[in-house]
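WARN no homologs supplied; continuing
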Amino acid sequence: MHRLINRYILREIAVPFCMILFVLTFVLLMGKILQVMDLMINKGIGFVEIALLMLFLIPSFLVFTIPVSLLIAILIGLGRLSGDNEWIVLKMSGLSLYQLSIPVAIAALTAFLMTLATTLFLVPYGNLASKVLLFDMARQKASVSIREKIFIDDFQGILLYADKIPVSGDFLEGVLVADSRISREPSTIIARRAYLVSNPDTMVITLRLEDGSTHSVDSGLNNYRKMDFRFYDVRLDLAASLAGEKPGIKSSTEMTLSQLNAVLKKRDAKPEVLRELEIELNKKLTIPFSCLVFALIGMPLAIRAHRSVRSRGFTIGLFLVLVYYLFRLSGEALVETGRLPAIIGTWTPNVIFAVAGLLVFAFSAKEGFRLRRIRDTFHDRTPPRTPAENTSKKDTC
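OK structure emitted
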């Protein structure tokens, strides 16, 4: 009997969980559609590369959508039981809140393991793979980042113009480069032809110019200098401009748990960098644990009878998620400024929600215990039928 009830409750949670997970992940992916369309239409990236890029981005979204989907699914699934009075029937038949928590705990543990695997393995791999894929696309074809007769400012401190790019994309013709990385003496470079030379190890692309000249003026506009060259190299940090990170260096979101521990043990980085790494290390554990915390606080709140089950579940779920992430962002901000240790700033939201969930759970369990005690008292006070009453009842039938 209990197995049948457990499967029934699990199904009530699993169906909305899958639907909400798909919708939330799809909505977050829609935020990247404009960038993807620009890569496909304006920069000539193929559909296969775009599909791979979207696939690599999905784990970073699942980290947030799995816990949120679990909370809303519990509120909707158990809320429907309560709204249709099925929860009252189950309580009157002897089912306690502790027994109801078994299928919810199974769902929460499943979501916990999914989120843990995502944060520990899929997110670092996906972030690094998307960065490498962007660099590989830029390396294979110059037109990915550079288009003819258009000024390109994708590279920090460099404005690039190419008069002509052949269909093959192997080189550029009529190149103009405005280099302002040295603010005291910006220079303008003109070259007849240029090639893109890549270095996969450092994720840096070098623009090798041929047959040109550099023109520079000092800050006081008093001296002008011209230099002719046969070959001249200008480094373009293309991976940094596409992925937002320093070339050749893994960011904290691209590191696995062991890599983060190794860097933190060395303690040879700047304090702000170490604090960022500590936050990322703790987030790999606190985010999966939020699934258990959301299940703990969501289950007692869901069994309150209400007619508008779905709207109420979404409202309460979004409110709880908003409060949780406000606590989390505030704690991370305090850690980044050095006002709190990383373990306190990142784990405090989970502790607050866990304590609140335990209190609400205990209160709801007491209500169920009182209801069963009233039912037992009512049955005990019901007088048994006398033999005469039983005989008259048979005669009437």
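Residues 239-247, 391-397 have pLDDT under 50 and may be disordered.
OK
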